[in-house]
Amino acid sequence: MVEHARCINCLACVEVCPRGLFPSLLFHTVLQGAEETDAAAGLMRCGLCRTCESVCPVGLPLTSVFSAARASREKRAVSS
Asked: Is the overall model pTM greater than 0.70, yes or no?
């Protein structure tokens, strides 16, 4: 796993998400490798618009992590 800056829980990403998601929570869930149903649904609802990334004061690569996690999920689904 790649080391990222730590989220400071400012919730700026939540305030700007056009889909009403909690990008910071989703980010932590993905990095922890959790396969929670709610997180998976949020991951697939994300529009990958980078709005959350643009306001993150610590520069977390939110969209990149979400995109990679989606690709991984899709690959596992095809393999199953």
From this structure: yes
